[in-house]
Here is the input.
Amino acid sequence: REDLWVREGKILNPEKLFFDEKGSADVQLDCKGSIIAPGFIDVQINGGFGVDFSLATDDFKSGIDLVSQKILSHGVTSFCPTLVTSPPSVYHQVLPQIRVRNGGAHGAGILGAHLEGPFISREKKGAHPEHCLRTFEAGAFQDLLATYGSLDCVRIVTLAPEMERSSEVIRELTQRGICVSLGHSVANLSQAEEAVQNGATFITHLFNAMLPFHHRDPGIVGLLTSDKIPAGRRVFYGMISDGIHTNPAALRIAHRAHPKGLVLVTDAIAGMGLAPGRHTLGQQVVEIDGLNTYIAGTKTLSGSVATMDTCVRHFQEATGCSVEMALEAASLHPAQLLGIEHSKGTLNYDSDADFLMLNDSLYVQATYIAGQEVWRQDTSGM
Amino acid sequence: MKLIILETYSQASEWAAKYIRNRIVQFGPGPGRFFTLGLPTGLPRDHPESYHSFMWNNFFKHIDISPENVHILDGNAPDLQAECDAFEKKIKAAGGIELFVGGIGPDGHIAFNEPGSSLVSRTRVKTLAMDTILANARFFDGDLSKVPTMALTVGVGTVMDAREVMILITGAHKAFALYKAIEEGVNHMWTVSAFQQHPNTVFVCDEDATLELKVKTVKYFKGKCLMLVHNKLVEPLYSMKETGAEKSQSKKPYSD
Here is the structure.
């Protein structure tokens, strides 16, 4: 049992306040024994509540605002709006409308865009439209830049490292501070290791859209226990723990092999938060039935409709890990992946006061950003 | 003296806590009427993290105390003797210490009044004895070279001026010191023995700390009659809310 002290939007060290400033609390809030955890950070979310980040609509801005406001109730205080493989025109129209911004009462903070594709493998395209896939063997980084138009507010790029000239591209992106993620790929372990040595630090939805683990060539999955990772670096991997994308046994294998690298993501699509039925995902149409989402008329998984807090609960249940571990997978680890753990993802002194109050079953009761309450569970029993 | 013998460390701690609570409630503190609780100075402030952290984490953060009412000797003060003299003045200004709570060192010292300290000493700088340095090594990861060798401490005389003194002694390693303090004479080599001459002393200990005492002593204080008397001090447990009515009536300003 502990008290959390907040001042001017940051977590405060009460000892310094007491002894050096001789100060005490101006306002006291009784949290009634809730768990206080750092706010969740979702680095892969394609949309929700009818909004699709890969669709260049006229009211794109209000769409992203709607999603950022709605996910507060799932405990997400920062996120990376994700764009699936799209034609260059979409990137050129949409990317300038995504701005990095702090969260608040208006919604969760935006850390930058996650561009998943189009430089991915044909064989592992998953739900991505084949006609939009591209390569960069001609002009390497320049091709990538021309496709996206601008990298100003881009935080993560997912690509397939077996593609020709990927090493240059990865090095260039890493130099610009953009996190490179491996995914939708048929790379073998050595290709994946080379990519990591060039700067890649993330794996997009482990197990999905990559070669399965093989004992003589573990492929990208082998990065979890590879001994070729440069010293001082850690490979992180996203997992959609909705109970559908990965069998709980596989989730447990990954977690036990490399617990500190596990990052929970939702990979949520426009249908998240809406009734079952048909919705769009970029250039495709998807069908939602319960927690399952498939390309309409097929059995190809396409994103998920699970919310972040559902993923945390399912992860904790499936792995039997401690509550702390489950919460860290959704807050500390994504913050470490993006190199922002000095201000986000923890409750350390001087970090941003983005936190949640959860009950013992890990249901979000209240969400706070910069020390301000931005969402509270309605207890009127509606 | 009152010698309260409880079976275990946690029972001794709980008894002492209840006693202190009752004393504070019955005193009826309020604006201008301070219940001054004295505590041993602990480690010098050369190590700002360890001592202030210790007091914050184990005491201050659990209670609603105004920081202005907290006075800790500052080992970093430019003029240490002046700091000590000022401390004595602050005690006087607050109306004197109502209750002083302390422990006992294995060498029988109270606060940092090492063997050989004057029994009428006041707050001053003391050089620490080897026993004390060894005992404090645990705050410095067991590295003896890191333990400070000097400390500011309240004097034996300062504590004797308190209206009541409570000494907590637990563990077999303190047994000999307790024996020297209460069954032998008043001696500046075992400074806690000075409290034999204080009108209101309470020693609270666990079974292990009584290992060097005479059976007769232990039987007397653990006897049925005395235990009844001792238990009356902690039961019933008073609450500030009950004495609220009486408090508002007896509001004589304590200091001018």
Remarks:
- Chain A is about 25% helix and 20% strand.
- Chain A has a mean pLDDT of 93.
- Residues 308-319 of chain A form the longest helix (12 residues).
- Chain A touches chain B at residues 3, 14-15, 18-19, 21-24 (CB under 8 Å).
